[in-house]
Amino acid sequence: xxxxxxxxxxxCPRCKSEGPFKxxxxxxxxxxxxxxxxxxxxxxxxSDVAECAECGYIGRVREFREPKxxxxxxAFVTRRYTxxxxxxxxxxxxxxxxxxxxxxxxxxxxxSDFYDVEFTS
Length: 121
What we know:
Elements: E1 21-23, E2 26-32, E3 35-43, E4 49-52, E5 58-60, H1 61-64, E6 74-82, H2 90-99, H3 104-107, E7 109-120
Antiparallel strand pairs: 1-4, 2-3, 4-5, 6-7
């Protein structure tokens, strides 16, 4: 069963144990001359050292975190814009469209019926 408390999302990268782990972190200790009997404000960073108590694997805490995403999907969306122009300004409009030399929102209208979407992973 996955960890649901302070070790939520942690798993040994070698043996897949869910703990316990030895973690070099920070805490506030109540210390007496003869020792320490309590602590609070326990914390650690992803860059701190962790060790799996099951198999002895040592690494950074970030290595013990389960990946939040298994795959990355990228979508490229191409939108089509149109502009009503007079015949004598056709060349200027083509240059604007080709080289991006225009204020797309002010001069062009988005044609929402035409979107090209390409997915990659």
